[in-house]
Design goal:
Layout lengths: L1 E10 L18 H16 L4 E5 L6 H12 L5 H18 L8 E10 L2 E10 L4 E8 L2 E8 L13 E6 L18 E5 L11 H11 L2 E3 L2 H19 L5 H17 L2 E3 H6 L9 H16 L6 E3 L2 H9 E5 L4 E5 H4 L5 E7 L5 E7 L9
Antiparallel strand pairs: 1-3, 2-8, 2-9, 3-4, 4-7, 5-6, 7-8, 10-11, 12-13, 14-15
């Protein structure tokens, strides 16, 4: 991650009627670069991020100003960056009318990540560990942050609200999109990522609705379906890995979808193949397995599973065999005293199974 520009504006809605805006971007010291990079990377990797698209493009000030930054920042236009970041800060402050919304410093940062340009909009709630300072210079006002006695806030501490906008220059924003393989906007709002039933409606809606004015995409279901499809695909095509190993990977994928709220693709793949191994075959299998999931449509390394989609897995496991269809209660599936299945490889990657069912009460004969 390369930080190309950054600026801080102070949004103290508790004591001020107007935001305090910087005239100059930050002087990017090593400390500041570390703080900005850490908050930004952790925010983008948070399991609760969502994909989104902007609405009302002709009237959406965040979209219009963000697009101007991208259109004017190659080569980098510091003047346009400052002007548009000030407009974005005014828009956020306007959305923070409710006094129950926490005061904050707004960090706007223009950065490169994995060969793509992004604009980061990070709401940094006031912390005990650091303080924002206004410095008057002959060229204008510059707001920066300085650490207190206790040092910087814990690196990687969780952001509550942030938006990461992909390069908008020369792109059309599609409000009708249902999936986002290359999204224009990634949003993190920890108050609304699980549900929108906050007691204070202004608090729950001000960031994504009043400020950003966006439409969240149903990417949880997309990623969950793709993860299951990837597990299915892997056991069919990874012929270099023995059948028993492939089946254990598939079963562990199902267990993860049933028992975990969040899916971490790297952790899952690492649990089966060690990328740090000195064994080249182990590393090759790791990379190929990860590629299968990506090719199957998993677009994020971390995501929150779609609970409704995975609920059926919690209740039933299904097997379609040659002439036999089985639907097994998940509890029985896991009970070796009642159900056992052993997989046997055949020719041309055909799989045979030996199944034992015992001590199960007979309900009906047809």
């Amino acid at each position: 991650m390369v930080i190309k520009n950054a600026i801080i504006h102070r949004l103290d809605n508790k004591r001020k009627d107007e935001p305090e805006l910087s005239d100059l971007p930050l002087l990017l010291t090593e400390d500041l670069q570390t703080v900005i990079t850490t908050h930004t990377s952790k925010g983008m990797q948070d399991a609760r991020i969502r994909f989104a698209v902007f609405k009302d493009l002709e009237l959406n000030n965040v979209y219009l100003n963000s697009k101007q930054i991208f259109d004017n920042n190659d080569p980098l236009s510091e003047e346009k960056f400052v002007e548009c970041s000030r407009n974005i800060a005014k828009e956020l402050f306007k959305s923070m009318k409710s006094k129950t919304i926490s005061a904050a410093d707004l960090l706007v940062t223009y950065f490169e990540h994995e060969n793509k340009n992004y604009l980061g909009i990070l709401k940094l709630d006031f912390k005990d560990q650091y303080i924002s300072e206004i410095n008057e210079t002959e060229n204008g006002k510059r707001i920066t942050i300085s650490k207190k006695e206790n040092g910087w806030p814990e690196l990687g501490s969780r952001l509550q609200k942030a938006a990461f906008i992909n390069d908008l220059s020369g792109k059309d924003n599609n409000e009708e999109a249902t999936t986002a393989p290359d999204p224009n906007l990634i949003v993190l709002d920890r108050q609304t990522s699980i549900n929108d039933d906050e007691t204070d409606e202004d608090v729950s809606q001000f960031f994504k609705d009043y400020f950003l004015n966006i439409k969240l995409l149903d990417d949880e279901k997309t990623n969950t379906k793709a993860f299951l499809a990837g597990a299915n695909r892997y056991i069919k095509i990874a012929t270099a890995v023995d059948q028993e190993k492939r089946q254990s990977i598939y079963d562990s994928a199902l267990d993860l979808l049933i028992n975990s709220e969040n899916i971490d693709l790297d952790s899952f793949v690492n649990s089966h193949f060690d990328i740090e191994s000195k064994d080249s075959t182990e590393v090759k299998n790791h990379l190929e397995m990860k590629k299968v999931f990506k090719d199957s449509g998993v677009v994020r390394g971390q995501f929150k599973k779609h609970a409704e989609y995975t609920e059926r897995l919690r209740k039933k496991r299904k097997l379609k065999l040659d002439g036999i269809n089985l639907e097994i209660d998940s509890q029985i599936w896991s009970d070796i005293d009642k159900f056992q299945i052993k997989y046997e490889p055949g020719n041309n990657d055909t799989t045979f199974v030996n199944i034992t069912i015992k001590n199960v009460r007979l309900i009906r004969r047809d």
